[in-house]
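Hi again,

Forgot to attach this to my earlier email, sorry! This is the prediction with magnesium ion bound. I've pasted everything inline since the attachment limit keeps bouncing my files.
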Amino acid sequence: MNIAFLDTPIEFLKGIGPQRAEALQKELGIFTYKDLLTHYPFRYIDRTHFQSVKEVTEDSAYYQLRGHIVEINFVGEKRARRLVAKFRDSSGIIELVWFQGAKWMAEKLKANTEYIVYGKVTSFMGRFNMAHPDIDVVTPELLANQSTFQSVYNSTEKLKYKNLDSDGLRKSLRILTLQLNEHTIRETLTEPIIKDFGLLSRLDALRYIHFPESKQMLEKARFRLKFEELFYVQLKLLKSNLVRHQSIQGFVFNRVGEAFNTFYNQHLPFQLTNAQKRVVKEIRVDMGSGRQMSRLVQGDVGSGKTLVALLSMLLAIDNGFQACLMAPTEILAKQHFVTIAELLAPMGINVALLTGSSKTKERKILHDELQSGAIHILVGTHALIEDTVIFKNLGMVVIDEQHRFGVAQRGKMHKKNIQPPHVLIMTATPIPRTLAMTLYGDLDTSVIDELPPGRKPITTMHFMEGQRLRLIGFMKEQIALGRQVYVVYPLIQESEKMDYQNLQNGYDALLDDFKPPQYQISIVHGKLKPAEKEFEMQRFIKKETQIMVATTVIEVGVNIPNASVMVIESAERFGLSQLHQLRGRVGRGADKSYCVLMTSYKLGADSKLRMETMVRTNDGFEISEVDLKLRGPGDLDGTQQSGVIDLKIADLAQDGQILQLARSSAQAVLNEDPELAASENQLLVHQLQVQGKSRSSWSKIG
Ligand code: ADP
Ligand code: MG
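Structure tokens for the complex follow:
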């Protein structure tokens, strides 16, 4: 009964009909009653409180006024033509202005009629006016229906022509909410949860979110709906984690054997940090437990994730399995390969590299050796997931700097065996807690919260264009000390051509200041052939060049300890995590390192905050939180493709506390009833199924 009601096609709602229904579908994806009900307001207007015209004193503020229109005129010519209505209350007069839809408005407005207007005022030549206000004729009905907070909805131009602007949508929602009752809206949370958290019923929450009678009711409605949304996300994630733990068998790596021990005791280049030790142990326990590991390792840039990955792969080898490590770029894959092959060289472990530019002949040999088991560790790019790459017995997969990979790619690795291999995912930079809980909530998590000893914090400076001479001087100083310098240019797809031009211009300008033969400059960007890239990288690695000019191809993971200065050009165009990631390319050796953020003078508030944050802190966890606040979860790396974050009302940047409550509540339910078998929990099971239809899931990967 209730399902049928919520699934009713929207065209059957009084006042909608087939044409508007079609527009609602196309414009807002509203197909059913339920879709309309969950088209939540994005803000509210306080409708009980009126100001007087005299009180209008603050530019750009919103005001609600009640009074009469006394005069209506068209003013100005052509494009400046506009409709101006003089609006008067007992305290004074203010002008209402319409630039668009002026003709239509002129027909609608009536002089000497009482109106309520609401809108933003702007000060123009010392006088205030209100452009395109919300405007309603005062009727007894309007006053009676005036809930304290009037909801405002997102709409579109096309819908406005069909009378489905915010007001139109509210009217439809009024009609719909009047039909809500205990039969049409069933409770979706169990009684104990509702009691524990003092939640409104779902029915009341849906009524009050659209038509709140007081601020308190609005807050309660919001809390209830956010809680519910986050609760189900978490329940689902925690449940699939549980299922994985219980039912997906993993290879049992219970031997800590020769490979691991020999390396650990004889070839480890340095003492592990305590954090590295702890995480390796967590991984060991996990892989020895008989269940399949799906573990996320978070660690700041430079915290030594590679070594943790390597030790894990040695465990696989000790237990008779192959391992692979997948990196997001060719440069990074190559670098991992060199590092690992070097470290393992004395031990007779066979490490191979596979990237997009591996030659056909090499590939053939490599394929054979993989299938025979002659190769123990395969390092590579996404070339690893091609169907032609077949392992003899793949037991462990490491995915480095994971945010660059789509979910589908990760899933494919699992098909390389009948039984899924253990999976270790390593993030490039820390992820905010709320996001980690939501994106990776079904993975087990390890955190490397300690940097190797002896790292000197990187000093970050923010220079504006006018300080370029100072920058050049600083670079020369550092080069004279034997250091090397990166100069990085942004590259975004939309303006790629211009970006390359900037890069080229920057390179040419640098050549003026850093003349050969005293100075040599490498240049690396995405348009070079892999061999050319490699050549330029090598010159820099061998210290034949002192400066490397590059696009963000070097962004992820490159490790050249002697490079101690990172100059980021047009830094305002980079996101925070990218800036942090880039900065992490320096500070890897013993030398004092620097990061210089070059920007133009004109910076928006967000850009300013990004620069300030970078100058203030080196802590990736802290930076990730600021990033989330600034950009919102939808814009953070990796969240778009994941499709996991399609929250309708909760906001991960703001609702961390509710998320925490929802997660522990979901955890408590599963602790008591892991199978969700109890009769009172059947509604949770049902709800999971209903929601499961739309959401993609990590459990398909894990
Ligand atoms: P990330 O976590 O960013 O991937 P890497 O694994 O690339 O960091 O390590 C960064 C640098 O720190 C490398 O040069 C690595 O050799 C070094 N390193 C890693 N672990 C330690 C340690 N325990 N002590 C000293 N140096 C370490
Ligand atoms: Mg790394």
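Residues 49-145 form a domain with the OB fold (Dihydrolipoamide Acetyltransferase, E2P) fold (CATH 2.40.50.140). The CA atoms of residues 299 and 430 lie 6 Å apart.

That should be everything now.

G.
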